[in-house]
Structures are given as structure tokens and as C-alpha cells.
Amino acid sequence: MTWTIDPLRVPAALDDADAQDFREFWRIGNEAWRRDTGTDVNDDDAADVLERWREETYRTHAGLVAREGGRVIAAGSLEIEKTVARTAEIDVSVAAGHERTGVADALLAAVEGLAREHGRSVLQTWTGHRPDAGAERLVPPTGAGAIPAHDPPTERMVRAGYALRQVERNSVFDLHGSYDAVDRLLESAVAKAGPDYRVVWWSGPVPDRYADGYARAVSRMSTDVPAGDMVTEQRHWDAARLRERDARLARAGSLMGVTLVVHEPTGEVAAFNDLQIGSDHTRPTAQYGTLVMPEHRGRRLGAIVKCVGLRNWHEAVPESPCVSTFNAEENRYMLDVNEAVGFRPVSYAAAWEKTLG
Questions:
Q1: CATH for 4-170?
Q2: 84-110 pLDDT, tens per residue?
Q3: What is the DSSP string of 82-100?
Q4: CATH class in words for 172-346
Q5: Are 201 and 309 in contact (CB under 8 A)?
């Protein structure tokens, strides 16, 4: 079977005449993740995706589409974080009916070629999986979690020489359900933290007084959360980058809510949690990050930012049905917090890595 692989053109707007390929790129990505995981809670918002792809200050993107008979049947992407030197994130998505035709393999090889052109040698990607798909499982080196050994995403990555590094659990919290467990956990966590810690919450642009501390905490996300055997490089965030993110979210019609715990004696941001939703507030909310700075761990600050975030987000965006989050299966502390407040697992994600020769 013959396919053609073409560069993806990034349009100025989703309704432009030349935006069809980009819309197909977005649609196929969502369709593939739904098919692989059995859930639609992690659908990407089209306007948010376009704005991320148009940003060039801190990241750059390159995309490819595979066609058969003129129709787009697969999409591949490369994301380069400009503040690191070696790693790059890639993705390949295939339309239904083409999972085992070989087009994904061809597109993956082409994306690897793009990475080489950009001087990146360590490629990382994530695949989605159903919790009940098949008896034979692959277990990562962490020993925590497992994925089906013979579904199409797993077989594709193994064929291409990628190593399974980690398994993450995708969990969902019902924003329209009971908050009794949230309130109980928050009360006990605040008592444990003590008077040296103050909670801050906002939605929309980052307040000036918290920008520097929040940016430092976001930078630590790339190295201080459990990453299995993945290569990690610290990404740089500062107040200017947060401002760029605020502007991008505003252009896309997206909203972010942030919870901080501030250490009063030093003024440092000790923990944070952030949530984001696209312009359609009836869709699920994505949790983007939760981190307690290592020097402030052991005081249940992760429970505080999680609980305050859920409470305030429900009031700010009452239409959203749920929050979706990903946590490493070896991150037992955060899984304990999630389980205590009522998150339930709905799917799993596998982290893969390959070093180019």
C-alpha cells in the first residue's frame, strides 16, 4: 500500500481555507486517543492546540500528515522545547481502520527524521491504553503499573525500538458529585501544615506578586516529579513565559485556575496545582500539574492544593463535569490523595523513550 507524507501547514485560524489538514490532524489525534483508551475525557481543544503550535518563543512544533488517495489517514508531530538540549516529544496518531496497515510505522520514521534535523537525540512519547485490554502485560522498570502487550500502540512502539519507561494512571474526579471527602482531607491537611503556610487561588492571568515564585515551581515540574527511567532536563520558566502562556490561553478562549501554597516565613511558593479548560466549559477539565517543592514535603501540601483547586474550580466553572489527571503509578503519595478525595481510574498511559543512533 502506498501513502504520501506531507508537511503539516499551520493555519492562521481554524476556519481558514487552508486549515483542513490541521483540523484533520486535531480530529485524528482525539479519535485515536479515544479508541486506545475507551474515554473522551482527554480530548484536546482545537483552538488551544492551534495556539500552542503558533507559539515560537519557547517551543517549536513540526507536523506531518499521511494521505491515502488524497485523504489524511495519520498525523505525526514533533515538539521541541527550546530551553533544553537533547529531548523532544513526538506523537503519531492513526485513523480508525489503519492501525495495523504500516502507515504508523512509516510516519513514525519520518517524525524521527524531523527530530534529527532539529538536532534532538532523545525522543519521548506517550501512548494511551484501556485498563482491561488483554491478559499479557508489559511492566516498566519501575515495577509499578502495566499496559497491554499486544494492542496497536504497544506493538508499534516496540517495533520501532522504543523502551517502556513508566506507566501513568489517568484518573477522573466528578465535579458534580459529593465534596465531603475533599473537605475532610483539606481540614486534616491544613492542620498538619500549620500556620507557616498560606493558600492562594486565582483563575485567569497570573497576579504579578506570585509570578516569579510560581514560575520557579513550574520549572521544577520537569525534574522533580517521578519520571521512571526517562531522561529529564529542566525546562526554564520565568514571569515572562507565564505572561506568554496567559496571552496564548486568552487567544484560545481557555481558562486556567491555579492554587498555590506560600511559605510565609520565606515568601516561597511551596506547592502548586493548576487546572485548565478550553472555551467549551461543558467539557472535562485537564489538570496540568501538581508539585510540592522537595524542601516542603511531608506537610500534606499536595492534599491542600488538590482540594482547594477542586473546590474553587467547581465554583468558577460549574458546567465542567469532571477533572482528568495523570499520575505515575509509583507516585503513591499523590495516588493516595486522589483516591481519598474520590478520583477513579479510567485509563493508562505508557511513557516510551528512544535514543537515536
A1: 3.40.630.30
A2: 999 999 999 999 999 988 999 999 999
A3: TT-SSEEEEEEEE-TT-TT
A4: alpha beta
A5: yes
